[in-house]
Design goal:
single chain; alpha+beta; five-stranded antiparallel sheet
């Protein structure tokens, strides 16, 4: 069974497109295309699998919504019964644990704090270098899915503003869950009771700190040099003006109550001081605007909307895994069946060859769903798919039982549960 450190488990193809591909593909040897009747029966089977998993995830959606309701800043309506501080602490831990589990099933990668700090060093040409104060967070988790390279364009003055292509390493998706704690850097109006969920797309890896609240803009070296030069030159010029006034002249002016002699250097101190402060504020506003513009088109969803989107992603992913595992066992494994390693390698190599998708297929998870549903059998470590009609009958029987009992797909989360 091949394992790849540089590949992800995510299968980047819609369920609808995957079903059409499997129905119309000709097989590795060619001429193995499904008949029209087989295509119709497999499409019906695929719809049944999707319905089973959808029912399971609908139940999970309600559970996750209930867990988040206490901390949702946009909740409408609010929970009827207020929770105590002790209950909120327990609920907060349960919410974060549930969210982390959801992200794993949606094939996101969790970033630890050391990993985040390593990635955050510096800033891309389109980002803003920020300082992250970790003390403002009560709890925070950051996840990504997919690494890519985006092509963007710059016009640099030393290249006479010619258009230049630059490749930027990016995270295809970035998800964040966080709760803030009271901190002077956040200000008195910051929401420190609720939990915020954020989902972004195509974020340059070096700019991931731009997504976090409570950060402070780091002025680029050129801007610091400009501001420092302004202050230094101001002090130098004022000192030179004061040195031009003799000690006797200075004492005479003070004795006479006239400050006209000192008016010019004092005005310079005040004028250059204001100019320096104003220049800093303008630069800060410029970089804040740059930050806002950078993220405007990259924000996908917020708070409860993130829950809906991620659960949909996880549902689609598990449906793809289940259909791929069954289809390849049914069509190509034969009566002898395949070991998990053989099935894993076959699916990965075939998708890479015919669709150009390099992925690390989660074979264990897919086989577990199929075995629990009772639509594959295992003997001496080799898996065989039951015939399509028998598998369809099994799913229909399970669905009737679930409808009669009123319990949507009992069993552990993320598994297509079946009767023992």
């Amino acid at each position: 069974m091949a394992e790849y450190a540089d590949r992800e488990h995510f299968i980047p193809i819609r369920v609808t497109d995957l079903v059409e591909f499997l129905c119309t593909e000709s097989g590795p040897l060619g001429g193995q295309k499904l008949t029209a009747d087989e295509q119709a029966r497999f499409r019906r089977f695929a719809r049944a699998v999707a319905l089973h998993l959808h029912a399971l995830y609908h139940s999970e959606l309600r559970s996750l919504k209930d867990a988040y309701a206490v901390f949702d800043p946009d909740a409408d309506p609010k929970p009827l019964t207020p929770t105590s501080d002790a209950e909120r602490v327990i609920a907060l831990g349960r919410l974060f644990d549930t969210f982390v589990h959801l992200m794993e099933r949606a094939n996101y990668v969790r970033l630890s704090r050391p990993e985040l700090e390593k990635v955050m060093q510096g800033a891309s040409d389109w980002g803003v270098d920020m300082h992250v104060n970790w003390d403002v967070f009560d709890k925070i988790e950051v996840f990504y899915r997919g690494k890519g390279v985006s092509r963007r364009y710059l016009r640099r003055w030393w290249r006479r503003f010619k258009k230049e292509e630059v490749k930027v390493p990016t995270f295809t998706r970035v998800a964040i869950i966080l709760k803030q704690r009271p901190h002077k850097q956040l200000g008195p109006e910051a929401d420190t009771r609720n939990v915020f969920l954020k989902l972004f797309k195509d974020i340059p890896q070096m700019d991931i700190e731009m997504l976090l609240p409570g950060t402070r803009i780091k002025m680029p070296g050129l801007e610091r040099l400009k501001l420092g030069g302004t202050v230094t030159s101001s002090i130098g010029y004022v000192g030179w003006q004061l040195s031009a006034v003799s000690t006797t002249g200075l004492l005479g002016a003070l004795y006479a109550g006239s400050f006209l002699t000192l008016y010019t250097p004092v005005a310079l101190v005040l004028g250059y001081g204001y100019k320096t402060w104003y220049s800093f504020q303008v630069s800060k506003q410029t970089y804040s605007l740059q930050l806002t513009q950078s993220l405007y088109y990259q924000n996908l969803d917020n708070n409860a909307g993130v829950v809906y989107r991620l659960l949909d992603d996880a549902e689609e992913q598990e449906t793809r895994e289940t259909l791929l595992a069954y289809f390849y066992l049914w069509r190509y494994a034969g009566d002898r069946g395949w070991t998990p390693a053989e099935l894993d390698d076959y699916v990965e190599l075939d998708l890479e060859k015919r669709l150009g998708m390099e992925l690390d297929f989660e074979i264990g998870d897919a086989l577990q769903k199929l075995e629990r549903a009772g639509i594959v059998g295992v003997s001496e470590g080799r898996y065989r798919a039951f015939p399509l009609d028998a598998a369809q009958d099994r799913l229909d029987t399970l669905w009737e039982r679930y409808a009669k009992d009123g319990v949507p797909l009992p069993g552990p989360p993320g598994q297509l549960a079946g009767a023992k």
